[in-house]
Design goal:
The complex is a heterodimer of chains A (179) and B (99).
Chain A: H1 2-8, H2 17-39, H3 43-63, H4 67-91, H5 107-129, H6 143-153, H7 155-175
Chain B: H1 3-23, H2 27-51, H3 56-86
Helix pairs in contact in B: 1-2, 2-3
The chains are: A mainly alpha (179), B mainly alpha (99).
Amino acid sequence: MNLVLLGTQNPDAPLYVAQNVAFGIIAAMMIFSAFRVVTSANVVHAAAYLVMVLAGAAAQFILLGAEFVAITQVLVYIGAIVVLFLFGIMLTRAPMAGEENPSRDNWLLGGLTALVLLALLTYTLLDGFGGDRLPADLAPTDTGAVSDAIFGTYLIPFEAISLLLLAAAVGAIVVSRRD
Amino acid sequence: MLLNQFLLLAAVLFCIGVYGVISRRNGVLVLMSIELILNSVNINLVAFAVMTNAISGQVFALFVIAVAAAEVGVGLAMVLMVYRNRRSIALDELSEMKG
């Protein structure tokens, strides 16, 4: 709790113009690309826009100083998960020219739900966190500290994640086996 | 930088992902929308980790990335089986258990 109060009591912190401008540009690009992921008729276009969103997220992590998470995001998300998606698109014979109607009949209800959820979240965030500022002395996180946490405090969740990945790999093979 | 700008960005991405999950016909596109939701959660986690100077937020974000990879693997395997059995992955047509 004290750390949170420390983080908010820096009214004379320097105005980080470059970081704010970079954040604004990357956030605008991410929101536009995310919107195109959920509205484009062509599945391959949607995958390309998803890569833009994931790359933008990695850039936001670097802005926050979380360098290891940013590199892991690029390696695992863009490098493996998007490749998995592209293989899935290829194997399910997605029409290359785009589908006729990419959205289901309840798209209006879905849009309404998303808007109401957005209004609720925005109000809660503005009310709860107001003008809290990030610490003025934002430095890149020490990767050694991240590894100390993973292999020290969070060793058991780490081993559980390893088992989960093994189970997912074996399970995917068993589920899609031809016999 | 305000904390809220990262949290609001994550909220907008989350809501766009929710819209995608509800209203996309293609199974692969629903999985992509779930990835949008998971990424918004990751931005939230890392922003709070930086705000409260706790490393556990970043460690949790790494675990979320690993779980997302596992989930996409199994999810795409299931989409593949649906395609193999029905020649289409339009979610509208998967209604055999309906009433």
